[in-house]
């Protein structure tokens, strides 16, 4: 990144933090290093992030907002039918979870901290889409009636489990391409009334 000269320092710092997170992990994130990279004084970031935890929380919140936007875009692109929508959301989540694994870890770890109300709200927006999708499948008779949250947890566990297996290189590369469609189809078959 070139030195910061004008515009939105907060956005520039978050973009640099996300790059650093991808390359080095959360442990290496430093406000001082981000300030150096942006070409500002080491005190300048403190106007936006009083401490390192505030930076991590802002990064996690931005991650949830991006995940929400990507899931919404997948739903919109898939059309009105339940099964294509489910496949679209599953694909979008898996892409996010495997391309931004360190960010996803930060997002999930951060929302369980005391006082992380903004992260909890940001997560609820993204994962509320899954609940709404389950309700759609139930209303259309594709999924069995029942507690949509419970069914959504099973779906999320499946998607997140696949992402964890891929991120941990526990799935042979030749199986990766067909894994998600197979899992979604099995989820639908197993959840039918």
UniProtKB/TrEMBL annotation:
<dbReference type="InterPro" id="IPR050109">
    <property type="entry name" value="HTH-type_TetR-like_transc_reg"/>
</dbReference>
<dbReference type="InterPro" id="IPR036271">
    <property type="entry name" value="Tet_transcr_reg_TetR-rel_C_sf"/>
</dbReference>
<dbReference type="Pfam" id="PF00440">
    <property type="entry name" value="TetR_N"/>
</dbReference>
<feature type="DNA-binding region" description="H-T-H motif">
    <location>
        <begin position="30"/>
        <end position="49"/>
    </location>
</feature>
<keyword id="KW-0804">Transcription</keyword>
<dbReference type="InterPro" id="IPR025996">
    <property type="entry name" value="MT1864/Rv1816-like_C"/>
</dbReference>
<keyword id="KW-0238">DNA-binding</keyword>
<dbReference type="InterPro" id="IPR001647">
    <property type="entry name" value="HTH_TetR"/>
</dbReference>
<dbReference type="Pfam" id="PF13305">
    <property type="entry name" value="TetR_C_33"/>
</dbReference>
<protein>
    <submittedName>
        <fullName>TetR/AcrR family transcriptional regulator</fullName>
    </submittedName>
</protein>
<keyword id="KW-0805">Transcription regulation</keyword>
<dbReference type="InterPro" id="IPR009057">
    <property type="entry name" value="Homeodomain-like_sf"/>
</dbReference>
<feature type="domain" description="HTH tetR-type">
    <location>
        <begin position="7"/>
        <end position="67"/>
    </location>
</feature>
